[in-house]
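Friendly challenge for the regulars: who can give me the structure tokens for this chain first? No prize, just bragging rights.
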Amino acid sequence: MRHIAAATFVALAFVAILVGPGASVVADSADPTLVRVGDAKIWPYVGPDRSFDRRASSINVVVRNHPERVRGYLTRRHGWNRSDAEWVENAPDETTVVADERVPWRDAPGASRYAYVADRGWVSERYQLHHGSYFGARDHLRAYGPPDGDWTAVQAHAEHWDWFTITHTVDSVEDAQRRVEAAFLGKPEFAVKRVYYANGDTYDADGWTTVVVMALAPLLGRNARSFLRRLAAGRNRRRGTLAGTLAALPLVVRFGGILCERHLPWLSPDAVVALWYPVLVGGVPLAAYLFGRRLPAAEAGALAAVGFGTGLVLDYASLGVAVLPIPVAAHRAVVVAAVGLLAAGAGSRGDSTAGEPTAGRWTPVLRAGAALWVVAVVAGHLV
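First reply, four minutes later:
Bragging rights claimed.
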């Protein structure tokens, strides 16, 4: 019986060592290192109290947008639930693993963690979100940010409920970071990168924080995002139509003449020229003008010149012509410049976001393009 009691005492002592209080990571409170987030500087950790003395965990995700918009994005589209007050405010102290030691978090009610923002001092989390089951395994995040700011600092960690200790035990911050990061990857409105914050001394953190920057309009509502997608699709169609049509016209004229020669032998060469020559000299400037009207001027001019120039290159490539005489090459360069000026002159002066055509404007650029095109067509017979 004495041996059983001794063995029981040793076992209990061993368990107490495993689950009892340990040493948290101690920070240099005299000179904490701050990192820049937007226009602010923050301590790249959260603490169990308003002090630099202990680092509870590392800030591992930063989103350059307002905290409420970030919450809306995550809760609407990625299944994150707001941690209910009954689970958060009355939650028991959480127990974490830091440097292979179990450290109890003994904080104020609500299991709050505090972040430090220069010029603002210590702030508590704006909200908490979780993904998973409270009494099972889940990802848990705390979000910090000023009410009038354009950034959200997030501390995310993966944890599980331990029925023996009646607490949550944090298993990883890196795994949760990757899952939060995945919510933004592959989306055209976000640019995702990792920035080294040198805060890899808690849990399994490596010191690299995920930073999400808005590549387009930041976290807009559903209707606005749909409008942007439609706008981008419409703009791209107009770009493709302008460049594609001008690239295709030289080939259409070339192969149209060849097909007439082969399949309509009763047509004279003059008749074939009379059929296809107007398509080239009239169709090219007309296409540049009509399809360039719904694009910004500079963009329309560049796309028209590139498109038509590509069409000329493909035309000569189909013929097996690799080198042109200098006069002919110079003439084709002038023709390409004229097409570019025509499209630019027809294009809008600003960024035509609504895609409305610009009508009734005989601009100096458009007049220059038209004059250069006429000169190039006439000069083509002299080269």
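The longest helix spans residues 222-263. The two ends are 116 Å apart (CA to CA). Your move, everyone else.
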